[in-house]
Design a protein that fits this description.
Chain B: Pfam families: Amidase. The complex is a heterodimer of chains A (155) and B (537). Helix content of chain A is 21%, strand content 5%. Chain A has three helices and four strands. In chain A, a hairpin with a 2-residue loop joins β3 and β4. Chain B has 537 residues and is α/β, with parallel strands linked by helices. Chain B has an eleven-stranded mixed sheet, with helices on both faces. The longest helix of chain B is centred in the C-terminal third of the chain and has 24 residues. The two termini of chain B are 36 Å apart. Classes of the chains: A mainly alpha (155), B alpha/beta (537). At the A-B interface, α1, α2 and α3 of A face β8, α9, α10, α11 and α12 of B.
Chain lengths: 155, 537
Amino acid sequence: MATRALLAVVSASPNRCFISPSRITILQSLTSSSSVHFHRHSRKIHRIARSYSSDSDSSALQPPDVSRLAQTARISLTPAEIEECETKIRRVIDWFGQLQQVDVNSVEPAIRAEMDGRNLREDAPETFENRDSIRASIPSFEEAYLKVPKILNKE
Amino acid sequence: MLSTLQPPRSLSLLPLRRFQISKTIVSAASSKTIDTSVISPPQSQILTTRRSLLSGETTAVEIAKSYLSRIRLTEPQLKCFLHVSENVLKDAQEIDQRIAKGEELGPLAGVLIGVKDNICTQGMPSTAASRILEHYRPPFDATAVKKIKELGGIVVGKTNMDEFGMGSTTEASAFQVTANPWDLSRVPGGSSGGSAAAVAARQCMVSLGSDTGGSVRQPASFCGVVGLKPTYGRVSRFGLMAYASSLDVIGCFGSTVADAGMLLHAISGYDRFDSTSSKQDVPEFQSQFLSVDQFGSKPLNGVKVGIIRETLEDGVDSGVRSATQEAASHLEALGCVLTEVSLPSFSLGLPAYYVIASSESSSNLSRYDGVRYGNQVMAEELNKLYECSRGEGFGGEVKMRILMGTYALSAGYYDAYYKRAQQVRTLIRKDFKAALEQNDILISPAAPSAAYKIGEKKDDPLAMYAGDIMTVNVNLAGLPAMVLPCGLVEGGPSGLPVGLQMIGAAFDEEKLLKVGHIFEQTLKGSSFVPPLLANVA
């Protein structure tokens, strides 16, 4: 069996954290007495060009620009909120950075848990009976339109 | 679909006083509360209710009145419910009328059920504990709710939660903070804290929650109740307000394994409205709930149990570690074969989970735009309307996660974050699969500690996220898991409960329920009834 050391570096949190800070866990190689089958990685040297380094300081990924993200996500934030968010988000994104160190060479991404085939329905429209209840939820409704303000083009 | 279910004769038929609750005896001088000589194994509330109704010992209306009265008495301290149904007595009356006419009764007839507020209930407010949906009343029932009603269950109300499921303490609700019935200064866990606390406090018999990263299992541990997370696809997600579509499931709370299992059976099954729901057969879980006198000396003889090494290392409270080890010994005494297993990818689950969850939630929550439902903040221009409605409607944690997700999915960043997290998900799935080929179930603590104090984790997101380490991997792998109370640690007026997590292979809830039921029924020396109830009828 191929022996692999998988480095899991967990970034330190200043507060009490339930994961040991900065501990590098080197996982044991498999023996026949072990009860776990280790994931078999290919020995191929072929690597995807690494555009990101493992050191987050020199990462090619730009740190989050909270104002721009808020605009993309259509959420208005006060300046105080932006400042608070920025600190927290940066810490979390830095923490995400440890995923960069995992060797995922030739590992297929899993969209979700395994499913038993495709469950598609007939492409046939069905009438929903309780339309009044839907209408009652609409904030601005003028038969038969949902009323919204105009859109201004942003240059 | 189930029709009338005869209560399995295999369960104990000792006549019980209705609402038999083993009283914890609290002495003023010490925190030791348990008189082990009088504790009998916990009894299923669903089956007790059924027997009482069928025998004429009581009526559904009397039962409902008793629970409503308990809600009135305990809600000011606990705040589990965002909304209590106005139709409880009316629904109970209908059950009594059916009994009077000798009509068939569904297996949940007269059972009072709490429903987490992110699960749609027609005509009843469903807000996901968010201001953006403050007055929203859905035009339809979630499939799980529809099934409960068809089987005679009564929805008692909508329970409090962290907004949109984002949180681990229920403090992120826009409306109120729920208290832990074991210690009112502590959190019930999250995000399904209201559902867990309501069952612990006997405000309802069973309840529904949702579990994306541990949101049923961790509160179950904190509140000393059973929390059951099914396999992804076992229960339809139709009507569950989506947080992370590849991780969300609806789960069940009960005061016994049998109750959680019976509720799960009721809501399971393929649903054409949820294309991720599975067509796998739903076995009759009830056959696992044998009565104690049928167990034999080694009822779990030969069952292989793997204890996950990475969950008992640094960072886990010593009280939790010893409770878990004692639980492992108990399983051994029942005949299980215990080995230690290692899941090499274990610690990667937490960052992978948060990347996936925030990414998917940023997409799922884009539907809350103030246009078709929910609170709208009027503006001169459409984008402003979106921005202000969402800015004012969403709480801080929700906004943060949406922004994190927006970042992770931005052009050029998708490979670095989301795709990478998906690849880590594959590694995690493979590790679990391998471990479950060698073992029937895996066990671990449900959380690194017992319940935190209210406010303790609010300011540091990473400290909050760290508490999910035991649970997120199971969601990434899509496996079923159950948490059941296994011991008490120090804290609060009578100790704080901790739960043991059992993880099974995909669609193997039957095995989990069998092992859990036998474990629970033979566990000596603990009664998981919070001290709050000692003073409430």
